[in-house]
TrEMBL record:
<dbReference type="InterPro" id="IPR029063">
    <property type="entry name" value="SAM-dependent_MTases_sf"/>
</dbReference>
<feature type="domain" description="S-adenosylmethionine-dependent methyltransferase Rv2258c-like winged HTH">
    <location>
        <begin position="37"/>
        <end position="105"/>
    </location>
</feature>
<dbReference type="Pfam" id="PF13847">
    <property type="entry name" value="Methyltransf_31"/>
</dbReference>
<keyword id="KW-0808">Transferase</keyword>
<dbReference type="GO" id="GO:0032259">
    <property type="term" value="P:methylation"/>
</dbReference>
<protein>
    <submittedName>
        <fullName>Class I SAM-dependent methyltransferase</fullName>
    </submittedName>
</protein>
<dbReference type="InterPro" id="IPR053173">
    <property type="entry name" value="SAM-binding_MTase"/>
</dbReference>
<dbReference type="InterPro" id="IPR036388">
    <property type="entry name" value="WH-like_DNA-bd_sf"/>
</dbReference>
<dbReference type="Pfam" id="PF21320">
    <property type="entry name" value="WHD_Rv2258c"/>
</dbReference>
<dbReference type="InterPro" id="IPR048711">
    <property type="entry name" value="WHD_Rv2258c"/>
</dbReference>
<dbReference type="GO" id="GO:0008168">
    <property type="term" value="F:methyltransferase activity"/>
</dbReference>
<dbReference type="InterPro" id="IPR036390">
    <property type="entry name" value="WH_DNA-bd_sf"/>
</dbReference>
<dbReference type="InterPro" id="IPR025714">
    <property type="entry name" value="Methyltranfer_dom"/>
</dbReference>
<keyword id="KW-0489">Methyltransferase</keyword>
<feature type="domain" description="Methyltransferase">
    <location>
        <begin position="179"/>
        <end position="289"/>
    </location>
</feature>
């Protein structure tokens, strides 16, 4: 491409810097196309069909997956030029290398294909978000199709595998108290996967989950019934007035998983948590690891993605409820201020080796 020597304002350009940015941008366009292909392949179950490392033709993969061969062939072409699958031009076969399969298929420690879904998912509301730039009111939850489904997959990789061995022991007394039998509340519970895992592991304890989404709560109730979990229940509930509606000293242990920053009234929710905890209660909050200052997030390994998710979802759904719009990247400094104002006197924050995205806060009244 032709490299300009003057900026639109007429000032001299650093041609090397411009060329570097141009190359970076073209690379990003290709990588975003790859993410769309990965999302499609994950949802269609195609990576799992390729997980055994056996080379197949597009026709064979179409037969195995019971999907259309023409679409399969084009998808495989995109993954070939993306360097995700290996292609043998003589035999017209395609193979997913085991190193790639380990990161793109189910049943492993981490399936990165899950996270690829966020880009096309959030793209569905781009027109609504663009309108919000003008009126500032945000985009309501119901506009986000499949969001709780994808969040449940995300949680299934960051929270559930580490829940019993790493997360709950951050409050050392909690595992033993769960064994003995206590009352537990999860707020913004989504599909309730963490609650159901705890309910199954600790039958002497009683668990309750609240979420604003009727779809998520319906799914959670159906799953709890299917798993015969009689010690867990779920309820649709708006938590914006939780500071006044929370039951006083009703719960021994309260959790939130990636749920505070997108609330309409986050301080009200936190004050309600402090109110509903018993005197010796513990609140465990997982939330995004970041600073409250943009310049400190420049080296964040997921910074651009998390700011995108913030503007396309977390900030926007809060503003749609007439809320504060804290955003995904509200950061440790603001979080600590909110926890303190809510009434928590003992505040500790941790990071876990498996999770570069989140902080884990342990708070006591």
């Amino acid at each position: 491409m032709e490299i300009a020597t003057l900026s639109p304002s007429g000032s001299a350009l650093d041609n090397h810097r411009q060329a570097e940015f141009e190359n970076r941008f073209v690379h990003a366009l290709n990588e975003s196309g790859m993410l769309q292909l990965v999302s499609l392949g994950h949802r269609a179950g195609l990576f799992d069909q390729l997980a055994n490392g056996v080379a197949v033709t597009s026709s064979e993969l179409a037969r195995l997956s019971q999907l259309n061969e023409r679409y399969i062939r084009e998808w495989l072409g995109g993954l070939t030029v993306s360097g995700i699958v290996e292609h043998d031009a003589d035999s017209m076969t395609y193979r997913l290398p085991p190193e790639h399969a380990a990161l793109l298929t189910n049943g492993r420690d981490a399936n990165l294909a899950v996270f690829a879904q966020y880009i096309p998912l959030l793209g569905q509301v781009e027109d609504d978000v663009l309108e919000s730039f003008q009126h500032g009111k945000g985009v309501p939850y119901e506009k986000f199709h499949r969001f709780h489904e994808v969040m449940a997959e995300d949680s299934g990789q960051t929270v559930l595998p580490a829940l019993f061995d790493s997360i709950l022991p951050l409050a050392p007394e909690i595992p033993e108290r769960l064994e003995a039998g206590i009352h537990v509340l999860d707020l913004g519970c989504g599909r309730g996967l963490a609650l159901m895992e705890m309910a199954e592991r600790f039958p002497n304890s009683h668990f309750k989950g609240y979420d604003l989404s009727q779809d998520a709560i319906t799914w959670a109730c159906e799953q709890a019934e299917r798993r015969s979990l009689n010690n867990v229940s779920f309820e649709v509930r708006d938590l914006s007035d939780f500071n006044s509606t929370a039951e006083t000293q009703a719960f021994d242990f309260v959790t939130t998983f990636d749920a505070i920053h997108d609330q309409a009234k986050p301080l009200n929710l936190l004050q309600g948590i402090c109110r509903t905890l018993k005197r010796n209660g513990v609140y465990l909050a997982q939330d995004i690891h970041s600073s409250s200052h943009h310049h400190h997030d420049r080296e964040h390994p997921l910074g651009p993605l998390l700011y995108t998710i913030s503007i396309m979802h977390c900030m926007s759904v809060s503003l749609a409820q007439g809320g504060e719009g804290l955003g995904t990247m509200w950061g440790r400094e603001v979080a600590r201020d909110y926890f303190t104002r809510a009434g928590f006197s003992r505040i500790d924050v941790h990071q876990l080796p498996h999770d570069i995205q989140n902080d884990y806060w342990v708070l006591r009244p």
